[in-house]
Amino acid sequence: METVRVVVGGAVCDRGRLLAARRSAPPALAGRWELPGGKVEEGETPEQALVRELREELGVEAEPLERIPGEWELKPGLVLRVWTARLISGEPAPLEDHDELRWLTPDRRDEVDWLDQDRPAVAEAMRRLEAASGVSAPSVSSASSAPSVSSGASDL
Question: With 0-12 CB in 10 A as exposed, 13-18 as middle and 19+ as buried, what is 43?
């Protein structure tokens, strides 16, 4: 049986905004946006990996809060799992694997071209931000011609 390797993503939220990171590599992903994170190393919990990855990639200290339900296959044997996280200290900077960062409010989530696998977790993180703020962003899904939200892309 093949072992599944986990990539952790951080839905880093601060003051009603979600942090988006633009990939600078590899070429196939460059220019697309994602939730920052990386692979869980031997002997780490996913939460420990997320703290380490956010430190390495963004230069911040963050605290994982809740896992967003679901996991998304990146390629065979590699899955993405996402946690919400809060900043403890530092100002995020694109140190590794990214060339730009943006803070997005729920009403601006579609301003960037999210990686397909990140879209369901981004949608859930934005729903949580909206619920916490008590403000609902206009729904984009009603304008979509896609019949099902389960595809992940039709609700963004």
Answer: exposed
Q: What is the mean pLDDT of residues 70-96?
A: 96
Instruction: Write the secondary structure of the chain as one string of H (helix), E (strand) and C (coil).
Output: CCCCEEEEEEEEEECCEEEEEEECCCCCCCCCEECCEEECCCCCCHHHHHHHHHHHHHCCEEEEEEEEEEEEEEECCEEEEEEEEEEEECCCCCCCCEEEEEEECHHHHHHCCECHHHHHHHHHHHHHHHHHHCCCCCCCHHHCCCCCHHHCCCCC
How far CA 117 is from CA of 8, 53, 64, 153, 156, in Å, comes to: 12, 18, 20, 9, 12
Answer yes or no: pTM beyond 0.70. yes
Give residue 91's pLDDT: 96
What is the rounded distance in angstroms from the CA atom of residue 115 to the CA atom of residue 59? Answer: 22
Q: How far is 127 from 105, CA to CA, in rounded Å?
A: 11
Six-digit token string for 78: 């590699």
Q: Which two tokens stand for residue 80?
A: 């993405």
Checking if the pLDDT of 138 tops 50, the result is: no
At 119 the pLDDT is 97
**Distance between CA atoms of 85 and 31, rounded to whole angstroms?**
24
